[in-house]
Description:
The chain is mainly α. It has two domains: 30 residues; 99 residues, no CATH class. Helix content is 65%, strand content 5%. It has a two-stranded antiparallel sheet. It starts with a helix and ends in a 15-residue tail after the last helix.
Amino acid sequence: xxxxxxxxxxxxxxxxxxxxxxxxxxxxxxxxxxxxxxxxxxxxxxxxxxxxxxxxxxxxxxxxxxxxxxxxxxxxxxxxxxxxxxxxxxxxxxxxxxxxxxxxxxxxxxxxxxxxxxxxxxxxxxxxxxx
Length: 131
């Protein structure tokens, strides 16, 4: 009786843990991960903000209105190759955003940082949950 009870408890716990991983992935509740659409939105909004600050600083230094094409900041998520349906590690997205906020990003623009900096070489994560 004890052996059957122990086996059934073990089986239920294994099934519950496996199904919770699938449930987390389907609902987008992966701890330490975020969906590509969210990651793309974060990268794009930070890129726009940084490039607006950069253009404003250049206009102030030059003393005349300076309009730099901010189109590349609108395409920041495309430049970073973010798939809206994939999942990405939040840490890697944060590292890319931090790299954009460096003096290089404020000087040369976010598109340059995204294409050159290794921190912005973000790959989709196939793991269901963080290890």
